[in-house]
Amino acid sequence: MDWGTDLWDQYDIIDKHTQSGLELVEKYVKFVKERTEIEQNYAKQLRNLTKKYNPKRGCKEEQECRFSNHQSFLDILNEMNDYAGQRELIAENMMMNICIELTKYLQELKMERKTHLSEAKKAQQSLESTYKQLDSSKKRFEREWREADKAAQYAEKTDQDINATKADVEKAKQQANMRTHIAEECKNDYAAQLQKYNKEQSQFYFSDMPLIFNKLQDMDERRVRKLAQGYVLFSDTERHVMPIIGKCLEGVNKAGTNVNERNDSIALIEQYKSGFERPGDLDFEDYSQGINRASSDSSLGTLGTPKGPLELLGKNRSKPFWLFSKKSKLSPSPSSLTPLSTPPASSPANGPPSPKFGRDPLSYCLKEINKTVKPRISSFRTLGRMRLTPERIIVMPTVTEDFGHLPPEQRRKRLQQKLDDIGKELQKEVDQSEALEKMKDVYEKNPQMGDPASLSPQINQTAQNMERLRLELSKYESWLTEAGRRGDSMLRRDTLPEDALSYRSHSNNNEPYSPDGTHSEEGTPDPSQAIYAEFDDDFEEEEELVAPIGQCTAMYNFPGASEGTITMQEGEVLSVVEEDKGDGWTRVRRANGNEGYIPTSYVSISLSK
């Protein structure tokens, strides 16, 4: 069954049907375009949403990313950002594979339909023209036949008229014969036109129009097939990205399962643990018998007025308690300075006598801190690049050639790096010296190639450079050896008991040791310097190569331009050697043995259980 045979007389229906099919294609293209706009707007809103809730660099939220619930939320934001990218990909593929392709194909169909309809119109016009000629010849034949019939009747009437002359009768007969002849010619012309029209009409209805209708049918079927492909692409476009969208949703699910409330609690403890002991009981001060200084050996807060429980717990305070913070000065409160400036007379009845002040109150306070502070306080590691002086508590370090301003581990690494650089330069100079010597031998054996004396300045310069580099190499090697010995001695110092450490500290300062932790200031040039020496020894302590305590994955790139830091790339996995002590830095190690510090907020840490 085809349109040319069964719909030979339904030209108008075929015309409307093909036009309706093209309009459906246009409508579907418009529908897909609006769908792509919705997808693009949806993806844009998702990206804006993830950008809105992503923490900015250096903000407080970024520092909290070390907690699993915060990190999982960031993972969800990243997955939603990828999900938005897949929605954009859906919109792009629909636009390219459906809208653009169907629009191009629609234009071709419109041109083809226009051509077929034009051919049908031409065939119909040709048939109508032939029919007009047939009708004209038919009317002429009818008219001439009537005239011939009238002429014949007039000639017969004239012939029967007795009054008519012979000439009138002959004239009437001739007129009748002429009209009859003309009528016969019109009849023959009409017959020829009728035969021509019948032939063209047969060709029009049995050949030309069926062929055009079949072409239109083929065009419409191809349109339907192409539109069906567009329908299939509408679903396939989204189905192709469903695996990736599924992975994004799996990532969201995984982010939820990765939350570990216990690890978050431990991370909070490790991040904000101060390392100080709880304050001890306050001694009773009997002002009726004179003021005696009461100190607590378990707290660093004995420099000023005793703190209340809310102040010790950090309530209504924006920063934790710190010995050298701006809010905690070394100078005692006026109430405590009064007995320091005018010490009362000692009374055996009231217990131990008040300490004697041979120096200013600040020196005494520093001396008392030296007695109460433990030999090593890990929370002070961030002061490793600072120096303490009585005139100015915190001063910026002075950069020295031997890297003495750095902590021991960082100093040794910088010295080793400097030795490697000098070794490379020295090897380069040695290679150049050997090349010059070989060239000099060639010139001596073949004077025509060059003058050996012309190489003497370069040889002398190379020798001087080698000598200079050897001296620098020896100098840095001695510094590295010194740093290594000092680090080893500090490591051995960590293994001693607390009493032995206290004894060694006092012995190094030529102070007599007593089990209760007190010492006399006799033989001590300056008691206030004891704490600085002890702090410096603590900062320059070097740890041995220890086993990693966990792993971390870099979330951002870090250049590692500062001293003692190490570079890392996003996605790199490093071994955690030392946790963050509250200063925002974590010590890590690469697989090749390189160690250094990185910002804690730049990595995702997973500690070994």
UniProtKB/TrEMBL annotation:
It is found in: Cell membrane; Cytoplasm, Cell cortex; Cytoplasm, Cytoskeleton; Lysosome. Its main location: membrane. It comes from the Eukaryota. Residues 106-175, 412-446 form a coiled coil. Residues 547-608 form the SH3 domain. GO terms for biological process: endocytosis; signal transduction. It holds the Pfam family SH3_1. InterPro entries: AH/BAR_dom_sf (IPR027267), F_BAR_dom (IPR031160), FCH_dom (IPR001060), HR1_CIP4_FNBP1L (IPR057871), HR1_rho-bd (IPR011072), HR1_TOCA (IPR057870), SH3-like_dom_sf (IPR036028), SH3_domain (IPR001452). Residues 405-482 form the REM-1 domain. Residues 1-264 form the F-BAR domain. Keywords: Cell membrane, Coiled coil, Cytoplasm, Cytoskeleton, Endocytosis, Lipid-binding, Lysosome, Membrane, SH3 domain. Residues 341-355 have a biased composition (Pro residues). GO terms for cellular component: cell cortex; cytoskeleton; lysosome; plasma membrane. Residues 329-360, 501-529 are annotated as: Disordered. Residues 329-340 have a biased composition (Low complexity). One of its GO terms (molecular function) is lipid binding. Belongs to the FNBP1 family. This is Thyroid hormone receptor interactor 10a. It comes from Oncorhynchus kisutch (Coho salmon). The gene is TRIP10.
